Amino acid sequence: MLSVAVIFFTFGLGAWVIGLYLVGVGANPTEDGADPLSTVGWIEVIVGVILATQVFVLVQQAGGDAAILTLAGLVVLFAIFFTAFGVALVRGLDLRPIGNLAVAVGILAALYVTFPFFDGLLVFQSSTILWGIVFLLVAGFTYGMVPAKVLGYALLLTAIWGFLPVVYLALDLEWF
Predict the structure, then answer these.
(1) Fewer beta carbons within 10 Å, N or C terminal of the chain?
(2) Treating both helix axes as pointing N-terminal to C-terminal, what angle do 96-111 and 66-91 enclose, rounded to 10 degrees?
(3) Which pTM was predicted?
């Protein structure tokens, strides 16, 4: 369960940092001209790398358990997205390809709700649906159809929702 807590916490941190930036908190360059978006990008790269390492941990822990292996597949999608997104921010690249990636990741993530392994897991299912929606908002943002603040607040909500399972796991409560 520690891997699952790390995954939810890492998702939440990645969403929190970019969400705050998009709503305008810490978004202005400093007096020396340092751009906070580059720092946000590095944080997103770190999130992607942490998620990728958790995939390996999940696979090692799975012992052939199909549900854990399926979860690892979902985490791979997020790891790829966060890493690519972070690199694009750090390098100042065109974000439209990231929007295209977000559509695929959002649709695939939302499909995980239908997997029988996760029936009745309200936190997992609702989080996955919320992430699916957020990824579609990311795509809309990269093409200028979704305002930054709308995406920012959606990411902050997603981050808070992502932190809840960590609290429940830490308190050893059964909410999954």
Answers:
(1) N
(2) 170
(3) 0.89
